[in-house]
């Protein structure tokens, strides 16, 4: 279990993590979700005592990281896959880690096997692809057979086979009763992996709930109607006390009324329909709505470009081009 209480981090004037309080529980994958620059890596570094909180605490199974004997046997992490001494072979890298953490040598062969690197164990990691480096980083995280695992954006830059492999690995580790905490800036990725979600924006906690609850609260269902006579359709709906929003192209969106009822209504008024379709807003949209306030716009060549508070990073792919900052 990982417990955060009031965890806060300033870098100079930049507030990277803002009084985060939540608990990461064992036996499930917990997704740690937020736009780029939201404070996910900083939070994870503080969990591992690689960065000092300005305020607040992190407890690993009730203890501070520094109180853990042989910390790799409690908590394993994949932060930056390329942060490995490139001149060493994969097996030597892992042997060094094992030796300094009181872990038996035999474990090195086991974890190389688990991550599928046995055939390149004697090769220098300098020549590894990103996917192989991620696997080596995961081997290091698993080395001490820890009950708690942290993965920071583990699927970034991986091919579909690698992504599939990591997803299954995380689910299996959770099914073994371990605490698995994984960050991502993509809701679509978390929807496939995580059972529980912690969402942050600009360092602040925005949501801490099960994936099922998040879906239930955030997936909006509605019906789209399109008619060559949108004005008359709007009038008919209005008379029936049904609210509709015109979204252009003669299309209307209606919440809370089933499609068959709307179709019947149109037929009774002899209205031609070109579309009558139930719709469901994606979780990605829900996540974007939730974290929209934590996003700043920067003008760029006359085009609005989404950038994230405190950073100059462009919007990651998969966020859609047409979203707008709330309240602006
Ligand atoms: P995420 O992992 O969600 O993308 P980060 O934790 O990397 O977010 O960054 C959170 C904020 O803290 C950003 O504004 C980032 O620019 C800032 N930040 C992160 N690390 C440092 C650092 N070492 N020095 C100064 N600012 C930093």
UniProtKB/TrEMBL annotation:
<feature type="domain" description="ABC transporter">
    <location>
        <begin position="2"/>
        <end position="227"/>
    </location>
</feature>
<dbReference type="InterPro" id="IPR017871">
    <property type="entry name" value="ABC_transporter-like_CS"/>
</dbReference>
<dbReference type="GO" id="GO:0005524">
    <property type="term" value="F:ATP binding"/>
</dbReference>
<protein>
    <submittedName>
        <fullName>ATP-binding cassette domain-containing protein</fullName>
    </submittedName>
</protein>
<dbReference type="Pfam" id="PF00005">
    <property type="entry name" value="ABC_tran"/>
</dbReference>
<dbReference type="InterPro" id="IPR027417">
    <property type="entry name" value="P-loop_NTPase"/>
</dbReference>
<comment type="similarity">
    <text>Belongs to the ABC transporter superfamily.</text>
</comment>
<dbReference type="InterPro" id="IPR003593">
    <property type="entry name" value="AAA+_ATPase"/>
</dbReference>
<feature type="region of interest" description="Disordered">
    <location>
        <begin position="308"/>
        <end position="328"/>
    </location>
</feature>
<dbReference type="GO" id="GO:0016887">
    <property type="term" value="F:ATP hydrolysis activity"/>
</dbReference>
<keyword id="KW-0547">Nucleotide-binding</keyword>
<keyword id="KW-0813">Transport</keyword>
<dbReference type="InterPro" id="IPR003439">
    <property type="entry name" value="ABC_transporter-like_ATP-bd"/>
</dbReference>
<keyword id="KW-0067">ATP-binding</keyword>
């Amino acid at each position: 279990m990982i417990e955060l209480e009031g965890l806060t981090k300033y870098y100079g004037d930049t507030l990277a993590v803002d009084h985060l309080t939540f608990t990461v529980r064992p036996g499930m994958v917990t997704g740690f979700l937020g736009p780029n620059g939201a404070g996910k890596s900083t939070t994870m570094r503080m969990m591992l005592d690689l960065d000092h909180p300005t305020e607040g605490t992190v407890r690993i199974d009730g203890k501070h990281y520094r109180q853990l004997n042989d910390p790799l046997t409690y908590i394993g992490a994949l932060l930056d896959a390329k942060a490995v001494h490139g001149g060493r072979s994969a097996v030597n890298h892992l042997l060094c880690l094992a030796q300094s953490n009181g872990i038996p040598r035999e474990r090195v062969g086991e974890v190389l096997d688990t991550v599928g690197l046995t055939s390149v164990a004697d090769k220098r990691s300098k020549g590894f692809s990103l996917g192989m480096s991620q696997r080596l980083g995961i081997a290091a995280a698993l080395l001490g057979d820890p009950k708690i695992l942290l993965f920071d954006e583990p699927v970034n830059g991986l091919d579909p086979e690698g992504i599939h492999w990591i997803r299954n690995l995380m689910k299996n580790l959770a099914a073994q009763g371990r605490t698995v905490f994984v960050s991502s800036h993509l809701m679509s990725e978390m929807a496939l992996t995580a059972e529980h979600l912690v969402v942050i924006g600009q360092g602040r906690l925005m949501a801490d709930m099960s994936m099922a609850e998040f879906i239930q609260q955030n997936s909006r269902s509605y019906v789209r109607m399109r008619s060559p006579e949108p004005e008359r359709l709007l009038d008919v709906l209005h008379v029936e006390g049904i609210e509709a929003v015109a979204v252009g192209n003669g299309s209307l969106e209606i919440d809370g009324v089933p499609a068959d009822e709307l179709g019947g209504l149109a037929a009774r008024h002899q209205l031609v329909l070109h579309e009558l379709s139930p719709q469901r807003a994606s979780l990605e949209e829900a996540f974007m709505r939730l974290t929209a306030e934590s996003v700043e716009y920067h003008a760029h060549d006359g085009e609005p470009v989404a950038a994230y508070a405190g950073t100059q990073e462009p919007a990651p792919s998969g966020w859609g081009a047409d979203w707008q900052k709330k309240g602006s």
